[in-house]
Write a structure and sequence with these properties.
- The complex is a heterodimer.
- By secondary structure, chain A is mainly β.
- Chain A has one domain.
- Helix content of chain A is about 10%, strand content about 55%.
- Chain A contains 3 helices and 21 strands.
- In chain A, helix 2 crosses helix 3.
- In chain B, helix 4 packs across helix 6.
- Chain B has one domain: 3-Layer(aba) Sandwich (Rossmann fold), CATH 3.40.50.
- By secondary structure, chain B is an alpha/beta fold.
- Chain B has 9 helices and 10 strands.
- The N and C termini of chain B lie far apart (about 40 Å).
- The radius of gyration of chain B is 18 Å and the shape is globular.
- The chains are: A mainly beta, B alpha/beta.
- At the A-B interface, helix 2 and helix 3 of A face helix 2 and helix 3 of B.
Chain lengths: ~300, ~240
């Protein structure tokens, strides 16, 4: 166990809304070391024998409990790959809060590549919240490359809220999901890039069995000279439903590439994709200006609302 | 008091020729007046409304508010100086909620019950709307009423409405006129300029201005002007919309 520094505490607050020790199970990781852990009667957290990450076991029927597993890095030049596996028992209803914050004041790149695998058993319901945040004024980059894999059994539900609003220089996030009969996946992604940042967000969602249902909505804002790529591939193998939406505001000299693709392997698969990229509409700015905001204030309100 | 002095506004058409929209227009609107501006389609009514709000700038002439020249003030500065504007076509926002718009309009930390009052004024059940995004999931009529609610929340000394009755759907003219009445009573010395060719709105105005091809055709007290416009394109009854 190590004591968190003030910078690390600030990062914790940003990525997990944690201002004090949370109730329930938690595992804090700071500069690649364990900084705190708590388990409960229903939720066990075990370090992997080879030291590459943790296994989180949630007993069947666990309800209204939460797990916080934030990661903070405040050392310049630190690079790590971490594997966290979540085993969520049947009929659970739990909240999992992850997230990574990097503060890099040095000249070397800092990088956290977190691989999260979720095994969601029949009838279980999971709400997963993940925030990424970067700070520090060093020339070293803050890099986050998360991989999220979700394996969903019959009638399970996974709601994912993923946000990266500030300070991460480079990110390549890949989300893979496989849904069995009646499983439902809901994804709400929020992404804002600025400066010279680069972000890639890829989804591979496979609806394997009848009644599987996915709703993936990504909203993003690309400012300054930043570049984004949204790449979603949805495959429907049975009588299933999917709705994918990527909606982006482009500003300044930003670049956004949206690559939606749908693959139906069954005549009863209903797959829908909506994609839109555009600048903030002039009439939106004018309306807010007639309400007394400056053009800049109007722009901020529109972006904050869009990413809320 | 609003004064327009020798206001002209022209655009360059697709042939590169100058097309006048408003021609050398003089107009004074005193405090506590309700002015309805009517006229045939294409006469420049909406342009005149935008010139007052600062959305368009005059090619020539000056705009004065309470004796102060506001011609060069931006939309924001005019809004802060006390000019409100209700859009003919409400703007849709992805992400901003009805509450956000009312909060921005009020210019203060608005509480939910105050926001609800504004929505009730325009006949919307606040509970159903307050947290909804002001986007395409709402009907044109709902958005129009929300637009009017944002203007109410603004509490401007001079409010310009561009065809407030357009798209009002099932909500009645009677309610709209009641909203105008309560705005006048609530905001001291306030004036209202309403662009409309609906007879029922002309009937409640203090003064009527008829604009034709960018110039004032007639301007004076309602009782004097109304007989001249009844039965013309400038004064339609509510049922005409159904024809």
């Amino acid at each position: 166990m190590v004591e968190l520094t003030e910078i690390q505490k600030k990062l914790m607050a940003e990525v997990a809304d944690l201002h004090k020790i949370p109730e329930g199970a938690y595992n804090f990781r700071a500069n690649s070391e364990l900084a705190g852990r708590n388990t409960t009667a229903n939720i066990d957290i075990v370090s992997k024998a080879d030291g590459t990450g943790i296994d989180i076991h949630i007993k069947p029927g666990t309800r209204n409990e939460s797990v916080h597993i934030p990661v903070v890095i405040s050392k310049s030049g630190l690079k790590e790959v971490v594997y966290n596996d979540f085993y969520i028992g049947e009929d659970c209803d739990v909240v999992i809060v992850a997230g990574c914050g990097i503060d890099n004041c040095g000249g070397q790149d800092s990088e956290h590549d977190g691989v999260h695998r979720f095994y969601v058993k029949r009838g279980a319901k999971v709400k997963y919240i993940e925030k990424h945040y970067g700070s520090g004024d060093g020339s070293g980059k803050r890099i986050l490359n998360p991989v999220t894999e979700v394996y969903m059994d019959e009638d399970s539900v996974m709601e994912m809220e993923m946000a990266q609003i500030k300070g991460v220089d480079s990110t390549d996030r890949q989300t893979v999901a496989e849904l069995k009969k009646g499983a439902r996946l809901v994804v709400r992604e929020r992404l804002m890039t600025h400066g010279q940042q680069e972000a890639v967000s890829g989804y591979r969602v496979t609806l394997l069995e009848e009644g599987a249902n996915a709703d993936v909505v990504s909203r993003s804002v690309a400012r300054d000279d930043s570049r984004q790529r949204f790449d979603a591939r949805i495959t429907g193998c049975a009588a299933c439903k999917d709705h994918t939406e990527c909606d982006s505001i482009i500003m300044d000299r930003g670049t956004i590439l949206a690559v939606p693709s749908l693959e139906a392997k069954n005549v009863d698969a209903e797959l829908v994709h909506e994609a839109a990229i555009g600048k903030i509409a002039g009439d939106q700015l004018i309306k807010l200006m007639t309400l007394g905001l400056t053009e800049q204030e109007a722009e901020e309100e529109i972006i904050n609302g869009f990413l809320a | 008091m609003l004064e327009l002095r020798n206001i002209s506004f022209s655009v360059i058409d697709e042939n590169g020729e100058t097309k006048p929209i408003i021609r050398d227009l003089d107009l004074t609107v005193d405090d506590c007046r309700f002015l309805a501006i009517t006229g045939p389609n294409g006469s420049g009514k909406s342009t005149l409304a935008k010139l007052i709000a600062g959305i368009e700038r005059p090619t020539e002439g000056r705009v004065l508010l309470d004796g102060q020249d506001i011609t060069d003030l931006s939309i924001t500065e005019r809004a802060r100086a006390g000019i409100g504007f209700g859009f003919q076509q409400p703007v849709r926002f992805k992400g901003l909620t009805v509450f956000d718009l009312l909060r921005i309009a009020s210019g203060k930390k608005l509480n939910v019950s105050e926001a609800c009052n504004y929505l009730s004024e325009v006949g919307l059940c606040a509970r159903d709307y307050i947290n909804r995004e002001a986007n395409s999931s709402l009907s044109g009529g709902e958005l129009k009423r929300i637009e009017i609610a944002t203007v109410l929340a603004r509490r401007s000394r001079l409010t310009v409405f561009d065809e407030p009755e357009a798209g009002i759907d099932l909500w009645s003219f009677q309610n709209l006129t009641r909203v105008f009445q309560s705005m006048r009573e609530d905001i001291q010395d306030s004036s209202m300029i309403v662009i409309s060719h609906q007879e029922r709105i002309l009937e409640i105005a203090d003064d009527i201005l008829v604009l034709t091809a960018g110039v004032i055709d007639r301007y004076g007290p309602r009782d004097e002007i109304l007989p001249h416009v009844l039965g013309t394109e400038s004064a339609q009854s509510a049922c005409d919309r159904l024809k």
